[in-house]
Design goal:
alpha+beta, 5-stranded mixed beta sheet, 69% helix, 10% strand, GGDEF_dom, Nucleotide_cyclase, Diguanylate_Cyclase
Amino acid sequence: MTLGNVGVLLLMCMGFGLYAIIKGKNLSHKAGLLFVAAHGVLSAGVLGFTHDYLRAVAVLQEMPLIAIYLAWFYPRGTARKTMFVYASVIVFVSIIGPSGYLKGFSTWHEVVRLVVFLALSMELGYLWRRRVDSDNQIDMLTGVLTRGGLNVHAQREIARANRYDTPLSFVVVDLDDFKDVNDTSGHTMGDRVLTQVAEELRTSVRTTDLVFRVGGDEFVLLLPHTSLEQASQLVNRLRSQASHPWSWGATQLRPGDTVESMSIRADYSMYRDKKRRHNESQNGQ
């Protein structure tokens, strides 16, 4: 491979890299894999056919970034398979190519070091992605999980309940007259109320139960291994001890349920409870 061909491939990779930066998250997975394949061809060409040591070292330094990229954007299985093919092609060409960059028994330890370093780079990518995903699922004000976290955890718990035929309850909690708190006492007091209610919910349930803030003043309790009757007993007890009044609605997992269908039923039940409490308050005046 001539230096001219290497230069063309380098320009192609740089162009695609710029395109990927512009597209951001809208870049398709297929396009990303095409970029990885192009980079693999370029890397194999440099390590297998050029005698420029500095250029070869630069290519090796780029490979961990490819490993992190795959770990960040792709499912674990896809990332590992792609990285295996990518690294195998580069190592193979580097051994049999005219430059012989990795030729000879004395350099096999370098191959092992490269493979181990790429594997560690992928694990770093996985760890980084899990950390960011976890941070994105935590509500910064109350410390409980967010609506995004609800979708992830609820889908997992629904699948688990269906697999083992165990009950799963979904509870919606909505603060009463919360707008009045913000209007009369200010948003700082409103934040304190939200934080206090979230803390009461979080510390009053089991470690296997999950608490989410899914709206301004709306929370969800996800209760594995809990029937609707058990959930009702728990929530009534929590409401009787609450620092701020709230209404609630609950439902139990049914065959064919999704996160959305359970949320709709629980919301409907909660609005009925809120209307009933409002009517009782009006009649009591």
